[in-house]
Amino acid sequence: MDELPGSLGTSASLALRFGQTIFSTASLLFMCLDVEFYSYTAFCYLVTVMGLVVPWSMTLMIVDVYSVFFRYLPRRPRITTIIILGDLALSYLSLAAACSTASTTYLLVHLGRSYCPAKLCTRYQLSAAMAFLSWFLSLGSSLFNLWLLPSL
Amino acid sequence: MDELPGSLGTSASLALRFGQTIFSTASLLFMCLDVEFYSYTAFCYLVTVMGLVVPWSMTLMIVDVYSVFFRYLPRRPRITTIIILGDLALSYLSLAAACSTASTTYLLVHLGRSYCPAKLCTRYQLSAAMAFLSWFLSLGSSLFNLWLLPSL
């Protein structure tokens, strides 16, 4: 069971965490690099949530890098439980943020160009898409770790 | 472990399922009883998801009623796993629907009364609130059953 791919400390987990870091950072940057996101609550919420997801997945990525390339870390049930709960909570939060951003952007696009210039709207859409991808990978990590938990 | 409150077949589970049925039906009715929900994708999505949640929670409520009042049903790992996966999937879907509806409604309210008459907007808000409550109870059911799974 120690070889289960996707659980903490394996190379599959490292790949998942790497993807989460990339996508959540991309989502944050697409939303933050223009200054108009304060106008809508949904966009502020996305920025807040991605501000939580980025350090979380980056920390776990560093742990995975250490475990894969340097020294294999033993798994402890308590730490795994905390990671599973954190992943589940963050995946719910990032799904909520992605959905809010997507529906707000959709509505802005359909209201016409006065509410949302073409360049800004594309950015919002890209940011929502990146948030969805980050949610999906976070859900994957969480489920793989959950699968491992009973054997610990 | 058979007495764990909240797992399938207990009275706490019955209460959770009852709440889910009430809230998801209320959310569906608040959204459907006026005919304008076709205009926005988020509202159509909410109606679709609540149309899945209502029969699911109603079926499980009937199973719980049978188990609590008539004859105690033995738990089987495979059926419990299916129920946990269904609950998790539906809780993600209903969270997504609730967030989309809430952010669309928020934007419509802030755009002014021409987009959203006062009576309709209150209905949309109530519908989103009910969807959030339904998500919360569904998450509860799912976590309680998940807690029980390793002991089966």
TrEMBL record, chains A, B:
Keywords tagged on the record: Cell membrane, Membrane, Transmembrane, Transmembrane helix
Membrane-traversing stretches: 43-69, 89-109, 130-149
Cell compartments where the protein resides: Cell membrane
Superkingdom of this protein's organism: Eukaryota
GO CC annotations, alphabetized: plasma membrane
All residue ranges annotated as the Casparian strip membrane protein domain in the record: 8-137
Subunit and partners: Homodimer and heterodimers.
Name of the protein in its database record: CASP-like protein
